[in-house]
Amino acid sequence: MNKLPSFSLKDSQGNIHSNQDCQGCYTLLYFYPKDDTTGCTKQACLYRDLKVELLEKGIKIIGVNPAPSHQKFETKYELNFPILCDDQLDLCKKMEVWKEKSMYGRKYMGVERSCFLINPDGIIVWEKRNVSLAGHQEELLKVVETFLIHNN
Fold first, then answer.
1. What is the pLDDT of residue 152?
2. Of 2, 20, 22, 100, whose CB neighbour count within 10 A is largest?
3. What angle do CA 126, 119, 117 make, to 5 degrees?
């Protein structure tokens, strides 16, 4: 398994978050392509709705996107976890989620919808790339249960 790379990024309120924030507890770190689009909104709202259940299991949620601010998105959907602004693509590139994509035959660079479960030691113990939202909640909860049962 890989260790979470070092990073230091701001959220929309200007608070700095780093890889140190992902130590001492489990962290669900997720990356998404764009604020306020159908799939990204569904993904964010899914994690918002799971936050209490995940916190009860000792797991916090952190989102990451290249936009310089997510304040409108966070407010509009009452998101209850930080979304980090990776406008220099530092963490996106380190996590290899900045990819060539294709839509309607046009190629462009963008964020691959991905999520990672980081253990309390900062080790990536599970990853899901190119996340499809169909069945994602069930898969995520099953993975969480598996890791918590086998590692506690």
1. 53
2. 22
3. 35
Domains plus CATH for the chain? Answer: 8-141 (3.40.30.10)
pLDDT tens for each residue of 96-112: 999 999 889 999 999 99
Q: Is the pTM of this model over 0.90?
A: yes
For the question of residue 22 being annotated catalytic, the response is no
Reply yes or no on whether the pLDDT at 60 is more than 80: yes
Pairing of strands 59-65, 83-85: parallel
Q: Which of 40, 85, 92, 115 is catalytic?
A: 40
The string of DSSP letters for 4-68 reads PPP-EEEETTS-EEEGGGGSSSEEEEEE-S-TTSHHHHHHHHHHHHHHHHHHHTTEEEEEEESSS
What's the pLDDT at 150? 63
Provide the sign of the torsion angle of the four alpha carbons 60, 66, 69, 74, taken in this order. negative
